[in-house]
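Lecture notes, part 5. Sequence design as translation. It can be helpful to think of inverse folding as translation between two languages: the language of shapes and the language of residues. The source text, in structure tokens, appears below.
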């Protein structure tokens, strides 16, 4: 148990997911969590449901915290940090999930030697199955390193990377759920095309993707080996694989990750200017 005061700045979908994950993992008590946001109605619902303190005042929330988690969009991070700057001090540390905003930029906006951790989670954090990459600014010490990892482990898997890899993380796991949603949608439509009722096709497609991912994770076997295990010579699967390969499925997905990575770098450069 961390037993520290934690401020969630921006209690939207991701901020709320972190709050729930932190409490489910028993990292701290509800009385030690302070959340801010722009929608008072949603904040009050959270307060009634799980007993945390809420406000629309970012400065007030930051004042009480040992750990400050910035769950805001990149375009408002300057405004948010300016609101809080005068109450920030060296005994705190900041975790940011703002895409593209570097630890160096945050440190400059704060104007103080406060440790900054930068994270790139994905939307699956909201169901406890997230993929989060974490990198550390120059003032972060080992204990804070461990705390940041523990917080995001409460919402799924965590990897530690150099900050220079976060654009690629954005292209792979940050944007990745959108690619998988398209695959699921296409599988559903394939079943419907072949005469299957949509509700049954949907259930089968979702479970197929979920089960396949779990098998790769639990078995620790390379996906290509697992694919070969279900590919009978002259059978249905090898014919389907040939069709997918002829249309460049793997190349398209590789290109999607590369394209999203390049765009992430472009946006990061604009943001940090």
């Amino acid at each position: 148990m961390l037993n520290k005061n934690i401020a969630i700045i921006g209690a939207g979908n991701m901020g709320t997911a972190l709050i729930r994950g932190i409490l489910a993992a028993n990292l701290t008590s509800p009385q030690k969590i302070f959340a801010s946001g722009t929608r008072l109605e949603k904040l009050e619902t959270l307060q009634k449901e799980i007993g945390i303190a809420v406000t629309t005042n970012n400065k007030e929330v930051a004042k009480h915290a040992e750990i400050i988690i910035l769950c805001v969009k990149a375009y408002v991070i300057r405004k948010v940090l300016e609101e809080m700057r005068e109450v920030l001090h060296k005994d705190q540390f900041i975790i940011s999930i703002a895409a593209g905003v570097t630890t160096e930029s945050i440190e400059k906006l704060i104007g103080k030697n406060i440790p900054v951790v930068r994270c790139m989670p994905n939307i699956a954090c909201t169901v406890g199955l997230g993929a989060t990459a974490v990198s550390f600014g120059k003032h972060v010490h080992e204990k804070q390193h461990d705390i940041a990892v523990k917080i995001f482990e409460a919402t799924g898997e965590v990897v530690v990377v150099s900050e220079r890899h976060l654009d690629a993380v954005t292209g792979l796991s940050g944007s990745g759920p959108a690619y998988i949603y398209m695959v699921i949608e296409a599988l559903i439509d394939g079943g419907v095309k072949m005469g299957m009722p949509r509700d049954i096709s949907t259930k089968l497609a979702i479970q197929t993707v979920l089960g396949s991912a779990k098998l790769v994770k639990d078995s620790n076997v390379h996906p290509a080996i697992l694919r070969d295990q279900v590919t009978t010579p002259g059978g249905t699967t090898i014919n389907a694989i040939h069709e997918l390969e002829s249309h460049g499925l793997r190349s398209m997905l590789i290109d999607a990750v590369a394209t999203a990575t390049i765009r992430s770098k472009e946006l990061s450069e604009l943001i940090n200017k």
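The translated text above is only one of many valid answers, since several sequences can fold into similar shapes. The domain at 6-166 is CATH 3.40.50.720 (Rossmann fold).
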